[in-house]
Write a structure and sequence with these properties.
Blueprint: H1 2-8, H2 13-26, H3 32-41, H4 45-57, H5 63-70, H6 76-89, H7 95-99, H8 107-119, H9 124-128, H10 136-149, H11 154-158, H12 166-180, H13 187-191, H14 195-206, H15 210-219, H16 225-236
Length: about 240
C-alpha cells in the first residue's frame, strides 16, 4: 500500500492516474484519507477524473472525508472537485452541507453546488431561489441543474411564470422547454411521459405572457432539434 500511495504522489500524471485506478478498484480503507487529499490538490484534468472515480468507488464510506474536505481551507478549485465527487456519491445526508454553498460568491462553486443539489434531489424551491440575474454562465448552470433535477421540479417552476421579473419568466420558460424535450430523458422515460411533463406543456400553452411567447419563439430557432420542436409545439397550441 505504501508503494501505491507513493505512486499516487508521483510527478508523472500517468503514474498518478494508474495508482488512483488501482486504489479505486480495491478501495483499501487505509488509502481513503490520502486519496481525498490528493484529489484536493490535483490539477491535471484526466488525473482529477480518475481520482474522482476512485473516491466515488468507496461510496458513502467516503462521505465523512469528503465533507471534512469541503468545509476545510482547500481553496475554491478544490471545493468544486469535492462537490462534484459528493454529487456522484449521492449520499442524501450530505445535502445540507452541499446546499450551504449554493450562495457562494465564487460562481464555479455555486454552480457545482446547484448541480450537486439536483443530483441529491434537493427541494426544487431551493434551486428556484437562484433564478434570474444577467450572468449567462450562471443562468446556464442553473438551467442544467434543473434539467438534471427533472420533471419533479416542474410544479415549483410553473409558479414562477407569473413573476413580475421578465428575466425570471424567460428563464423558467426555457427550463420548462428543456425538461419537456424528450432527448433530455432516457429511452424508457421517453416512452412514459410523466404527468409533470404534461403539466409543463400545459403551463406554457396557457401562459398569458409576451415574455413566454418571445422565449418560445427564440427557442424554436434553437439548433438542438428536441428543444426547437418542444418550443414549436407550445407555440402551436
Amino acid at each position: 500500500m505504501d508503494q501505491l500511495l507513493k505512486a499516487a504522489r508521483n510527478d508523472d500524471p500517468e503514474i498518478r492516474s494508474q495508482a488512483a485506478l488501482e486504489i479505486g478498484s480495491h478501495q483499501p480503507a487505509e488509502a481513503l484519507d490520502e486519496l481525498v487529499e490528493l484529489l484536493c490538490h490535483e490539477t491535471i484534468d484526466p488525473v482529477v477524473e480518475t481520482m474522482t472515480w476512485a473516491v466515488v468507488a468507496y461510496g458513502e464510506t467516503a462521505t465523512p472525508k469528503l465533507l471534512a474536505a469541503l468545509d476545510s481551507d482547500i481553496g475554491n478549485p478544490a471545493r468544486v472537485r469535492i462537490l462534484h465527487a459528493l454529487s456522484k456519491v449521492g449520499d442524501p445526508a450530505t445535502l445540507p452541507q452541499v446546499q450551504a454553498y449554493a450562495d457562494d460568491p465564487d460562481p464555479a462553486v455555486s454552480a457545482k453546488a446547484w448541480w450537486a443539489m439536483a443530483r441529491l434531489n434537493a427541494d426544487p424551491a431551493a434551486l428556484a431561489a437562484h433564478l434570474g440575474g444577467d450572468n449567462a454562465e450562471r443562468r446556464e448552470a442553473l438551467n442544467r441543474a434543473f434539467v438534471q433535477r427533472g420533471p419533479d421540479s416542474v410544479a415549483a417552476l410553473v409558479s414562477y411564470l407569473g413573476s413580475d421579473d421578465p428575466v425570471i419568466v424567460d428563464q423558467v420558460a426555457e427550463i420548462l422547454v428543456r425538461i419537456i424535450d424528450p432527448m433530455t430523458r432516457g429511452t424508457i422515460a421517453r416512452k412514459r411521459v410523466s404527468a409533470e411533463v404534461e403539466t409543463a406543456k400545459q403551463a406554457l400553452r396557457e401562459a398569458d405572457s409576451t415574455v413566454v411567447t418571445a422565449a418560445l419563439k427564440r427557442l424554436a430557432e434553437d439548433p438542438r432539434a428536441g428543444i426547437a420542436e418542444s418550443a414549436e409545439e407550445a407555440l402551436a397550441s
